[in-house]
Design a protein that fits this description.
With 320 residues, the protein is of the alpha/beta class. The chain is 45% helix and 18% strand. A hairpin with an 8-residue loop joins β1 and β2. α3 crosses α5 and α3 packs across α10.
């Protein structure tokens, strides 16, 4: 069966991109009532929390990982290794081809997305990646597990504003990109599939989104509740189940891995954002992660430089 997860990073900030990612595993077992324990299957090559055995990979909710002392190291390792496993080749040594390998279109009007000179890895080392990847590949092979997909939609600030301007609803923008990734999973993977999507906000009913994405499908509504909303599609070649679930990163390792890729790409984008403004303006202002309160601090401190050095603010200060 295919076990996949979809998650996002950057839904709430005032600055920086929104990133939505999907990770899919092929696991050698039928679909049941229990989400497969991927962390258990892949241990000790994968761990869900510290301390980590030597060479193992930490995969957990990116919000938890980011708070760790070496959080950026762990998110970069997970992202680069996922790219290698899904693409079947070494991860690119530069950020732009890496992001494109994950699905970024690479077309942006904002100058801080000119990533040609940004290298990978930045926060870990190629040697550490090699050791961890080798250990993980061995464990995956022994358990018959594959990772056929790691994909991301990186919605830069200008595109985000364009899309919110058309819909007047940023939740609709997030849902649209999540549904596109869900459709990719359905289109490219036959047999039983189970996709676990992290819930965002208080929405409990997703049938309308599924029907817009899959207009010819008859979905069975299994449950719709504040904790989990489940839908099933009985395809000729197997069951396609979708869960929209609170704290999905804790329930499904594929969703946790997707969350780490999202956070990694967003952190790299914000690193490039801060580097660009520092280089252009010469201002020595503390970098921002783009979240609302700190973004307002950064905009206030950067005010003398914004009109002189940057593109129009309506392109990159997010509407909502």
């Amino acid at each position: 069966m295919i076990l996949a997860g979809i998650d996002e990073a950057g839904y709430g900030p005032l600055l920086g991109p929104l990133v939505v990612s999907a990770v899919a595993f092929d696991v050698p077992q039928p679909i049941t009532d229990q989400i497969p324990d991927l962390a258990g299957m892949l241990a000790p090559a994968v761990a869900a929390k510290p301390p980590l055995p030597h060479g193992s990979l930490l995969v957990a909710d990116s919000k938890v990982v980011h708070r760790l002392q070496n959080g950026l190291h762990h998110m970069e390792a997970a992202s680069l290794i996922a790219t290698e496993l899904a693409c079947g080749r070494a991860a690119p040594a530069q950020l732009e081809p890496l992001a494109k390998a994950l699905g970024w279109a690479g077309q942006c009007r904002l100058p801080w997305y000119q990533w040609g000179n940004a290298v990978t890895p930045l926060w870990t080392s190629a040697d550490a990646i090699r050791i961890t990847r080798s250990m993980l590949q061995g464990q995956m092979a022994s358990r018959g597990v594959r990772m056929p997909m790691a994909r991301s939609a990186l919605i830069d600030e200008a595109s985000f504003n364009d899309q919110v301007g058309k819909t007047r609803n940023k939740a609709a923008v997030l849902s649209s990109h999540g549904m596109q990734l869900l459709k990719q999973i359905a289109d490219h993977h036959a047999g039983d599939s189970w996709v676990v999507v992290d819930k965002n906000g208080a929405r409990d009913r997703y049938l309308d989104l599924l029907l817009r994405t899959f207009p010819e499908v008859v979905w069975r509504v299994c449950t719709e509740s504040p904790f989990i909303s489940r839908y099933e599609w009985h395809r000729p070649d197997g069951l396609f189940r979708v869960d929209f679930q609170q704290r999905a990163e804790q329930a499904c390792m594929a969703t946790a891995w997707a969350s780490m890729i999202c956070k990694y790409l967003r952190e790299r984008a914000m690193d490039q954002f801060n580097r660009w403004w520092m280089a252009e303006s010469g201002a020595h202002i503390r970098p921002t992660a783009g979240y609302h309160t700190d973004a307002l601090r950064w905009l206030s401190e950067m005010a003398p430089y914004l009109e002189r050095y940057g593109p129009p603010q309506e392109l990159w200060v997010r509407m909502r």
